[in-house]
């Protein structure tokens, strides 16, 4: 995608945009994709390159709400898992499982986390 070519297309565009989004970070891009998928004439403006600002500095981790399981907030876990599932479905080339280590500080931590993660795996489908 050539920026100059895109700017020329923008200047020659006739008609009215349904939605104007300023900022091509994660949120702006997500809104633009959603709006365009719904059939809206969508214009996304970005000062620099896409995802150059805050989005370029994120950890890029997609979590499914496992930390909310410990708090007992099951509805939030299910919501996060649903969103994670949508990302896996819509962009499987960008989402992959990541192994991680959970430190155990007492004898009960191991079985506690193992049980919690089994429940989490069950909830995730």
Set out the fold topology.
Layout (H helix, E strand, L loop, with lengths): L2 H10 L6 E4 L3 H12 L4 E4 L20 H5 L3 H17 L18 H16 L1
Parallel strand pairs: 1-2
Tell me briefly what this model is:
The protein is mainly alpha-helical.
Key words describing this protein structure:
125 residues; two-stranded parallel sheet; 48% helix
Count of helical stretches: 5
Using the CA coordinates, give the radius of gyration.
20 Å
Name the helix and strand elements from N-terminus to C-terminus, one letter apiece.
Answer: HEHEHHH
The main β sheet shows up as:
2 strands, parallel
Percentage of β-strand residues: 5-15%
- Give the overall form: elongated
Helix content: 40-55%
Textual characterization of the structure:
This protein starts with a helix and ends with a helix. The protein has a two-stranded parallel ribbon with strand order 1-2. Helices cover 48% and strands 6% of the residues. The mean pLDDT is 85. The chain has helices at residues 3-12, 26-37, 66-70, 74-90, 109-124; strands at residues 19-22, 42-45.
